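Q: Structure tokens for this one, please.
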Amino acid sequence: MLKNIIRNFQKKKLKNKEFMYLFDEAPKGEYICLDCETTGLNPKKDEILSIGAVMIKDNKVIIKNNFNIFLKPSSNVNEESIKIHQIRPIDLKNAQDPKDAIFKLLEFIGSRPIIGYYIKFDISIISKYTKNLIGIKLPNETIEVSSMYYKTKKRSSEYEFVDLKFDTIMKELNIPELGKHDALNDAIMTSMMFLKLKDKTPAKTTFYSN
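A: Here is the predicted structure, written as tokens:
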């Protein structure tokens, strides 16, 4: 009930009714797995440099149906952050205006649930853009793969440590590495994690309110 109240509140705050499709019923068996490369880890002040996303349909990763885009930053990217995300100024030469990129992303996602690795961060930083552009945070339900993985681990007590690093989960699930610090590759690897974990534990969705 609370979820419906929040969604109705978001609908009222939506500036552009063209994006009402974000609240449609999600197509059955379809998900979007996404990843963002950013200038830093503070959603309030940092910016998105690239977004990679791929569709999952009927328990298959639809590689050909992907989304891969670079966004123009408001200022030059500093050398320290390049060491982390490995996106060089030349990679951003043909980057798109953030508004255009975000609108294309919303069209690609639609009303589908969004899957990710520490997806709360990605949702937070994308929502900074959507709130400015259409008046609301991204309303889609989300699925966190590290939480799914955690639930599959047998522990002798509730205090036992479970390693939730991306590389650890990849290794445990025997998923091939496609190349790190590439938003699309990260999204594809995360989608493979999801499919391997999906049958082992229910994919609990989280609704982020506005």
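A few notes: The beta strands are 30-38, 48-57, 60-70, 114-116, 141-144, 205-207. The radius of gyration is 17 Å.
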